[in-house]
Amino acid sequence: MAGVDALHAAEAVAARVPCDPPAFQRVAARESALEARVAAALVGVECKAGAQREHFYGSGIVVAPNGIILSSATAVPEGAREIRVLLSDGRALEAEELERSNACESVLLKPRGRGAKDVRWTCLDAGDARAAQPGAAVFAAGNAHQTLGRDGQVYWSGGTLSGRFRETSDDESSRYHGAVLETDAAVNHGCDGGALVDGEGRLLGMLSLCHSKTRCLGTAIPLQEILAQMPRAAKAMQRKSNLPDAETPRAEDPVAETLRAAAARASKAVVKIRLAGSMNGAAQTERFATGVLVEPRGTILTSALNLEGAGARLDVVLADGRTFEAEARGRHLGLDVAVLQLKAPEREALPALSLAEAPELAAGDFVAVLGAPPDDGPGAATCTHGMVSALDRLEGLAVQVDARINLGNAGGPVVGLDGRLLGIATQNGGKKIWSQSSGVGFFAPAGRIKECLEALRRGQTLQPPAQAFLGVRPAVGETDLAGVKLAEVVEKSAAWRAGLRVGDVLTSLDGQDTQSWPAVIAALKKKAPGDLVEVRFMREEKAWKAHVALDVRAGE
Questions:
Q1: 44: closest CA among 71, 80, 82, 64?
Q2: Do 297 and 165 share a structural domain?
Q3: Domain count, the chain
Q4: Rounded CA gap, 494 and 512, in Å?
Q5: Nearest partner of 401 among 414, 412, 388, judged by Cα
Q6: Closest listed residue to residue 271, CA positions, set 366, 343, 347, 371
Q7: Residue 23: which domain range?
Q8: Which residues touch 295 (CB under 8 Å, ≥6 apart)?
Q9: How far apart, in whole angstroms, are the C-alpha atoms of residue 292 and residue 339?
């Protein structure tokens, strides 16, 4: 029956996805051809710099048919010596610096010597970074961790353009301050100087080590910013590229296009919350957080963690740029959800996104997560795409997704393919065991929020239900036993009082067989602190049983 249930679940997911197999095949074929075309215009760069002749490396983009290369100043620092360009066929060419801009952290290189004349260079066309909008498909290409020098392969990662804003780098390797294009495509060290391209393979920007401390996603310096600062680079890119025309006709990814449209509609309800105070113990004079209007009269949902250490005054910036004062109401500390009430004109209906009525969710469902832009001013909402990874996580208080959720978009809306508000991005903070933007993200589901929304509007602070605690931890790798072997028994816990010790095999809990650790968890979820349960276990081939009252999980 388990296999049948899994099949039915898969069919249910497929029914919610706009599926056109030939279209997906065309997308896959096009992206493969696109990677090959862009990779042909990418090189590795390396040099020596500084008094200690430190080794630097990164990426470069061929931007003209004569081999002119755009790269990053983090890969080729000022005063660099022994500059070399690494080709995918294993050749290494000497290069000289032609132009540099500290403002856009960019450098222009030209290969030199006899070997450079023998190369048939492939270059990229310029795209329009100003027209690129969050949610659009983009690709990152570069020399991550020296892959070009190691095996001749260009690093390639697909994703979305997740945001456009101004940023001051939080990475000690970069000193960039200015406009950035943000992407949830993976960007690693060595990618700096590489290419961020659109779905047609046109260059939108140069990958950078700059990143926001609240978002930790990859960024690129917009191409138009670079060309405005570097006249020789601008002149070089006036020449038409020599890339061959794409063999596969343009084919949009139906899921990405549907999510982008849904996010565009939802973005009108995204708000920026301006707070004064500290967060995670770090003193800050001002910081920004994300929220979403869920009622036209000004009810806002956000992550409760966003309000930690906040001062009394809260200002909210709407998507249209207007600013209003807001009042903090209630919080649900288990769901990590808080309610604010906007002090806006009473007769005005604000753009709101209502919580979905009992949305049916399943692992594999596609979602988009929106966030307020991290810089000052209105700006466009950020947008990251992903899918549901698991349901009923964190004691049933959260849904797990692989979309990038971080301090910057925590509190923002999570929407599905149909644009409905499925929940609020939550559970991201300094005390969490997962790092921000790690691919482990969570949102509080709409159904659970609706259950407590009126109480939160009234200003109540709600705690998560107390969890029963037995006090044991399973041994790793002991899966062939008729029960769960114990690696730890917390002293003076319920398990300890029942007589359990390390090495015992737990076989049942209150009559429910515990053949695996998930079975133990499932049995405990049915219980409350103080419940009297029967514990059965094996020790040295002898069966034991005892009755004991369950404890409260620490921190409750």
A1: 71
A2: no
A3: 4
A4: 17
A5: 388
A6: 371
A7: 2-32
A8: 352, 354
A9: 10
CA 396 to chain centre: 22
- Structure tokens given for 173: 């390797």
Q: Which residue type is seen at 98?
A: L
Give rounded-to-5 percent helix, strand, coil for the chain.
Answer: 20, 35, 45
pLDDT in tens, 41-75: 999 999 999 888 899 999 999 999 999 999 999 99
- Do residues 20 and 254 make contact, with C-beta atoms less than 8 angstroms apart? yes
Q: Could you tell me if residue 435 is left (phi over 0), alpha (psi between -120 and 50 degrees) or otherwise beta? A: beta
pTM (whole model) above 0.85 = no
How does residue 373 score in pLDDT terms, banded at 50, 70 and 90? confident
**Cα–Cα–Cα angle for 339, 352, 405, nearest 5°?**
65
Note whether 528 and 428 are same-domain residues: no
Is residue 245 included in any domain, yes or no? no
Up-side HSE of residue 362: CA atoms within 13 Å toward CB?
Answer: 15
Coil, helix or strand for 502?
A: coil
Tokens 């996104």 belong to: 353
Q: What is the DSSP string of 15-73?
A: HTS---HHHHHHHHHHHHHHHHHHHTTEEEEEEEETTTTEEEEEEEEE-STT--EEEET
What is the separation of C-alpha 473 from the centre of its chain, rounded to a whole number of angstroms? 31
CA–CA distance, 38 with 551 (Å, rounded to integer): 59
Indicate if 232 and 258 belong to the same structural domain: no
- In the DSSP assignment, the letter for residue 439 is S
Question: Please, which residues have CB within 8 angstroms of residue 104's CB and are 6 or more apart in sequence?
Answer: 176, 178, 221, 225, 226, 229, 230
